[in-house]
């Protein structure tokens, strides 16, 4: 009886008792200690990242917003201005480099995504020999980009190149690296050959993680392979595809070494990317303000491209468990 009256908040004499206040939760001391320990171990790496990545980006933005005067002992910043960005907007060379970089990025990323997905689907169905096939696929990707550019430069060479010989046998006699459109196509082929295996490995990793019971249910419902791919596989692969697209946009938009070795930005300026334009402005023309403006605008465009790719594929980073 006493227990019942106590639970109802009343004493035996009919008086209302005070409510029972639950004890306050004690802070998790071990969790805070582990968090401090984690920050302590991460601090050296964060300092290095800030020194070699964040500081150059911030300083490049500051330089792009100043008049930069070159002196015998270096350069100096002589006042805040938007003239460097105004020069970019009205410069046809920057617009041509921007168009080439965007066009190159869109075409190569789409082709590599389609080919990489097809290769991943084939590898996912292989029972024997998948490891050997993956090892062979990684050979082009593991090759240094400069070596890859030299290889394809020999292939496309006008006098003794294999591509020129084959096209000559078919009745075509183009100067591949000396004509704007064939030069752009040659750069794209070299990039696609090198980086398609990278996309295929990423997509394959996503494929092997897909739940098998979903496909069993689709097979029991009589769904065809084509319908299963479009309604089940592709939607479930959206996070993986978004990751592959984001990596490739970052790499393709910073295109420098491939055209620098194969065409040196030519013929003319047809294969001059934003990275090559910034390099020429900074190190050849010593226009530090304009070169910094090109680099800063390129970094901003890369950030916008990555955010757009995440938006298109509707990826909610950090909410996979919700």
Question: Could you walk me through the main structural features you see in this protein, from its secondary elements to its overall organization?
Answer:
- By secondary structure, this protein is mainly α.
- It has one domain: MetI-like (MetI-like fold, Orthogonal Bundle).
- The chain has 14 helices and 2 strands; from the N terminus they run H-H-E-E-H-H-H-H-H-H-H-H-H-H-H-H.
- The protein has helices spanning 2-7, 29-64, 83-89, 92-125, 130-142, 145-155, 162-169, 180-208, 212-220, 225-236, 238-253, 257-262, 274-284, 288-312, and strands spanning 66-71, 74-80.
- The protein has a two-stranded antiparallel ribbon with strand order 1-2.
- A hairpin with a 2-residue loop joins strand 1 (66-71) and strand 2 (74-80).
- Helix 3 (83-89) packs across helix 14 (288-312), helix 6 (145-155) crosses helix 8 (180-208) and helix 11 (238-253) packs antiparallel against helix 14 (288-312).
- The longest helix has 36 residues, at 29-64.
- The relative contact order is 0.11.
- The model is unreliable at 1-17 and 315-322 (pLDDT under 50).
């Amino acid at each position: 009886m006493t227990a019942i009256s106590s639970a109802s908040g009343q004493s035996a004499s009919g008086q209302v008792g005070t409510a029972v206040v639950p004890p306050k939760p004690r802070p998790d001391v071990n969790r805070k200690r582990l968090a401090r320990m984690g920050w302590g171990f991460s601090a050296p790496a964060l300092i290095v990242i800030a020194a070699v990545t964040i500081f150059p980006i911030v300083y490049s933005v500051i330089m792009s917003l100043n008049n930069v005067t070159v002196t015998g002992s270096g350069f100096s910043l002589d006042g805040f201005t938007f003239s460097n960005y105004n020069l970019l907007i009205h410069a046809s060379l920057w617009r041509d480099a921007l168009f080439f970089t965007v066009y190159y990025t869109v075409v190569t990323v789409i082709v590599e995504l389609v080919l990489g997905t097809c290769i991943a689907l084939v590898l996912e169905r292989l029972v024997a020999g998948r490891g050997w096939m993956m090892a062979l696929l990684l050979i082009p990707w593991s090759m240094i980009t400069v070596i890859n550019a030299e290889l394809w430069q020999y292939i496309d060479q006008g006098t003794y190149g294999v591509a020129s010989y084959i096209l000559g046998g078919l009745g075509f006699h183009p100067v591949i690296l000396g004509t704007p459109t064939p030069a752009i196509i040659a750069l794209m082929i070299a990039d696609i050959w090198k980086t398609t295996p990278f996309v295929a490995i990423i997509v394959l990793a996503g494929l092997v993680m897909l739940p098998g019971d979903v496909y069993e249910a689709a097979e029991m419902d009589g769904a065809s392979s084509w319908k299963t791919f479009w309604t089940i596989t592709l939607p479930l692969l959206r996070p993986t595809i978004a990751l592959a697209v984001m990596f490739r946009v970052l790499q393709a938009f910073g295109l420098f070494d491939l055209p620098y070795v194969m065409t040196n930005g030519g013929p003319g300026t047809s294969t001059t990317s934003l990275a090559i334009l910034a390099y020429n402005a900074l190190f050849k023309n010593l226009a530090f303000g304009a070169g910094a403006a090109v680099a800063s605008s390129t970094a901003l465009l890369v950030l916008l491209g990555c955010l757009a790719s995440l938006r298109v594929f509707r990826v909610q980073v950090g909410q996979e468990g919700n």
